[in-house]
Amino acid sequence: MGEDPKWELAILATVQGFYEKLLQDHLGGEVPVPAGLEAISLQSDDNVHGILLSMHRWLRLLDLAITPAMLRRALTPETDAEIAEAMLRYFTRNKEVSDANRDKTDLVATFLYRHPRVPGQWERRGYGLDGSIPLAPFEIAMLEILADADAPALSEEQMHLLRQFDRLQEEASTFRDLNALLDSGIIVRVRELKQLFDTAFYHPSVLATIAPYNTAFGRRFDELFWKAAKEIKTFARDLEEQGGSILGNVDGMDVTVEHVSALQESELLRIDYGTALEKFRRVSRLRKSLQEHPPVRRVPPVRAATSAGSAKAGTPLRLPDLETMRAAVTPQQISSEEGKLSKIEESVRAFVQVADARFRHVVPMRYFNLILTPVEVAAFCADGREEKSLQGRVTHALLRMTTVCARMTTELEELRRTQNSPSLWRLHADALVVLLEIERSVQENVKRVLASVETEGGTQTEAIQTSLKKLHDCTALVRQTLSPVDKVVGASGGR
Fold it and tell me: Which comes out higher in pLDDT, residue 96 or 71?
């Protein structure tokens, strides 16, 4: 390394301290240090050359234990620039051509560029007295940090390689989504370009060119990756609300909502390069798959209407037998739908309780006005709806009938609006099937409540029957809408 052995030892001791702390944090315990390399021993002026030999062997061992991914995690905005500079001196003097050593050098140089001692100092550059553009501030810093390193002049071929980074940085800025960036192969091309420098990769001018490129590319990549991950999670959330669980298929494997929930974007951006790149590609392929084939729940496939003419006219898509679909409803779908019904109940209650008494029976919904009977209004205003008394059970029955009607009406309207989008149309059809299953249990409960009212001499029979008729009418419309096309046409007298 440098001519002054004490200066060299000071650099190596700084790297050693950082490495040992990194390993201690990684392993969760102390790392045994070879005899003679303890902090107290390094302060002695005796046998400096012998200590240097031991230190080099020790650091080579630590280098094998510490991966570029571990170093990436350890380099935080709080890392002292003196430590990073010492590590850069250590790596560039070794000039190992291994991928790991080059990646570590790449990381440290880029860290120094991203975290200048004075904010914005790398952007400041003026002109020489002769009108020429002087060296960039970061390249000057690299030359100063590595001043005592052996750095032969770059060849014309190597200078040509360096000039390619401006074009690559401009290309990276044009990508608008993660699929395009990964499909372009720019990551592999840049990695191969860095390998072509061989030992010249450690030249100050090369590092000063690569670090700004890494920073600009990393910023763009992170932006596109977070955007893709957000879109996938939005797909997953929407699908889960519809009661589905399978998002798509990547590399022959189903990707579920649970898989996406476990996606940790920040962790993925910090793992080993090779492993991370493959995971990025999987995220990219999933996003592309979701765009081309929006997710649907796995039930018997939708069949198109029998004629192109009827499809163009807006005829509903043909569905499998309704009872087959109802049999395929899962507890998870029921639970998800129950959550939506609870939200509607709370929303209607909030409106009814604060609205003017003259108008609170007309509840504005997203696509329609929900009209309540006087008894239904009273039910939404009641406090004891969960009581086991007869009145509590009547109130509960009225609320359930009303909210199920409201949900069915909303989904029917969504169905109408999405009939030209088969995948979205199917999601709303699936929701209506789930509501039919819930409606069945609501009807059974209403029958029990009516029997109790008649037995105990209650007076709410007529009011309950009125709400029940509204539910019957709404259910009949859902069943007719979800029936196969030929049955719908036949019912209306068509061919």
Answer: 71
